[in-house]
Amino acid sequence: MKESFKEFENTVLEGFLLYTLLIPVLLKDEKKETVAKIVLFSFLTSLGLRSLVEIVFYIQDYSRGVMPFTNYDHRHISDSMVFLFPALLNIWLFRKTSLKLAFFALSAVYLFLMLGTLSRGAWLAVLVVGVLWAILNRQWKLMGIGAAILVIAGVLVYHSAKP
């Protein structure tokens, strides 16, 4: 019983309450834009590190002879990828051309990793979140690019599956 209270103290009190009180105190004098950028870049850092670790796992699996998209070993990443997806979408809102190119490169890596999870629920969640985000932010150009890529991919898959 004593250990369970100690575990509660370690996880809940230190991990949750301390950070929920500490972060607002540290950021209270910052502008809203600065706080938003800090949160965005922390989510992007988390997404980048999570993706890098998963790519290393894919490389290790490939060296053992396990081909990508053949098993469900990588399904565990889908929850964090779905949660962090809006941070990736928000890169598109920056005006710099270099960030737009980074968006497309990171989106390609994200797409590979999401398809590799073989989790249809995660795919559906990303699709719904992406469409809602594009509609709410009035990103018609991005929706057009996405629709064009989807049509091209569909045509390629259809023609490659034909005997």
UniProtKB/TrEMBL annotation:
<keyword id="KW-0436">Ligase</keyword>
<feature type="transmembrane region" description="Helical">
    <location>
        <begin position="101"/>
        <end position="134"/>
    </location>
</feature>
<keyword id="KW-0472">Membrane</keyword>
<dbReference type="GO" id="GO:0016874">
    <property type="term" value="F:ligase activity"/>
</dbReference>
<feature type="transmembrane region" description="Helical">
    <location>
        <begin position="140"/>
        <end position="158"/>
    </location>
</feature>
<feature type="transmembrane region" description="Helical">
    <location>
        <begin position="77"/>
        <end position="94"/>
    </location>
</feature>
<keyword id="KW-1133">Transmembrane helix</keyword>
<protein>
    <submittedName>
        <fullName>O-antigen ligase</fullName>
    </submittedName>
</protein>
<feature type="transmembrane region" description="Helical">
    <location>
        <begin position="39"/>
        <end position="57"/>
    </location>
</feature>
<keyword id="KW-0812">Transmembrane</keyword>
